[in-house]
Amino acid sequence: MSQKSLVNYIDLRAFAHATEDPEKVLSALHKLLPTELSETVQFEKNNLTGHHGNSITLFTTQLTEKKHLPTLLEKIGQNINAIDKDTLNNNLQLHIDKTNLYLRFDKQAALLGKIKFTQNDPIHFKIHFKNKTHEEIIEILKKSGLLP
Predict the structure, then answer these.
(1) Using CB atoms within 10 A of its CB, is residue 10 exposed (0-12), middle (13-18) or buried (19+)?
(2) pTM of the predicted structure, to 2 decimals
C-alpha cells in the first residue's frame, strides 16, 4: 500500500475571537504544518458575528495533496509528548468516527511552535482516511508516531 494513499484529505479550522489577533491565529495554523504545506496552503477567511455581537474570524482549508499528508501526520507524531499520545490512545473511541480522526490542538502552543492537544478553543483537524477500517487507522497512527 502506498504511503501517499493512507490519508484522503485533512480539514483544518480555527476561530480567531475578538480578543485574539487573527494574524497570530493564522500563524499558529501554519506552524502546525510541515514547511512544504505551510508555504503553499491557502486559508479561507470568513468573518462571523458571535452571540453577543462580537467579531469572530473563521479560518478553514482542506489539504488534499496526498504526497504531503503523511508528512503532516509524522510531524504531529514526532512533536506531541508522551502524555498526549497516551491520552489519545486511551480515548481513541472519542476521536474516531467511521473513517475520520478528529484532533484538537492548542493555539497558544502552536504559535510557539509546539504541538499540544487541548479541548478549549482549539485548532480543529479532521483527518479523513478513505476506505480504512478502525484497525487500519490505528496502524497508520502508530506508524506516524501519533500512538505509542
Answers:
(1) buried
(2) 0.91
